[in-house]
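Lecture 7 notes. Example A: sequence first, then its structure tokens.
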Amino acid sequence: MGNIGYYIFVLVALMVAFLVVKKVASCMIKSVVLLVLIVALAVIYYLYFM
């Protein structure tokens, strides 16, 4: 229950990143940025919760 702030932060970061990528980038750049975000979140999850 103590990590609710962390999850809220991750959700807000994903929404902001999605909106920025949607406004600025082409399809190829969107795919690369989304992949980088997924990898970064997976690394953060692994480091903090494993």
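Example B, a different protein, same format:
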Amino acid sequence: MTEATWGDDAKTPEIDWRMSAALENVPRGDADLAEVTSLEGAVRAWTALDPKHLNAAVLTPERALQIDGTSLTTFAGDGIAALVDLLPSANDEG
């Protein structure tokens, strides 16, 4: 028998920051091309964007993420900002 977990950890399970993710609607040279990288890399790249592109950017991870009990397949604006708050620190392993 499997035991159910109902605490806060069940609402936002551990995130696989190494999965692929596309960061779209951001400038890449003369065009706005999607960048495919790790989820962590895409979220960190988003933090370096100018305000115009922060608001326009769309982040699409390789698979849905569960944040606060909601399964999401794309993130924009405040959604990406919420992921920034969950980023592992440089001292964390994994």
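Note on Example B: The helical segments are 8-11, 39-47, 51-56, 78-86. The chain has a mean pLDDT of 83.
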